[in-house]
Amino acid sequence: MNIFITGVTSGFGKQIAIDCIKNGHAVIGTGRRLDKLTALKNELGERFIPLAFDIGNLDELNTALAGLDKAILHNIDVLVNNAGLALGLEPAHQTDMNDWQTMINTNTLGLAQMTHAILPFMVAKDDGLIINVSSTAGNYPYFGANVYGATKAFVTQFSLNLRADLVGKNVRVTNLEPGLCGGTEFSNVRFHGDDNKAKQVYENVAFITPKDISNMVLWLISQPKHININRLEVMPTMQTFAGLTVFKG
Ligand code: 8X3
Known about the structure:
The chain is an alpha/beta fold. It has one domain: Rossmann fold (3-Layer(aba) Sandwich), CATH 3.40.50. The chain is built from nine helices and seven strands, in the order βαβαβααβαβαβαααβ. The chain is globular and about 60 Å long. Bound molecules: 2-hydroxyethylsulfonic acid.
C-alpha cells in the first residue's frame, strides 16, 4: 500500500513509518526537520519518500504537495494525519496566544488541508483510508487542555463528519484517540523543553508507547474493506477519568 504519514520525524509518526516499511508498504512521510527526515530516509531506503515542510504553514504544504509526482499523489491508499502538538498546560487566562495559534494551525488547519488535498483522489478511485490521530483530550476536558483539547475535539468531529459525507463510497475514516502516551517528544514540546516537568508526567505509569499506537495503525489498515472502525479510544490501564470539579470558596 502507499501510505502518507504526517509528522514522521519523531513519536508515533516515526514508529508508524518504520513499521509500515517493515511490512512492505511504501511511505510518504512529512516533517519540519530536514536532518531527521534525511536520517530516516537513510534508514528506510527507497520505499520511503521524505517531504520537508511545516504542516502548520498552508503555503509550504501546498508547495510540497504540488512538487510530488502526480502518480503518487493520486494513488494514496492510507493517509495518517498524525502531525500535531500540545503547547502549555496553563489555565487559559495565562497562556501565550502564539501557542494557541500554532496548535490551531497544525492540529486543525494543517490536518484539514491535508485531507482536502488527498481525499478527492481517494474518492475518484473509490478506495482509501484516512486515520486521524485525535486524543482523549478531545473527549474529556482537563485542567490546562484549553485549546489543545479543543483542536482534538475538532479532529474527532471532523472524522465523524467525513464519514457522513462519504456515504456510499469505499473511503474509510478512523478517529484514533489515545490517552497518556510516553516515549515521545510530546511533553517536552508541551513544556517548552522543560525535561524535568516532562519526566514527571510519566513517572510510575505504564503509559502507551509509539509501538502500541503503530500496532493499532497496522491493525486498522489490515481490516477488510467492508469494515470501518469509526473511533478507537485507548488509555493506559492506569489512566482513567477525573471527577467533576467543585470549588468551595
Ligand atoms: C495526549 C493525551 O492525556 O496528554 O493527547 O491529553 S493527553
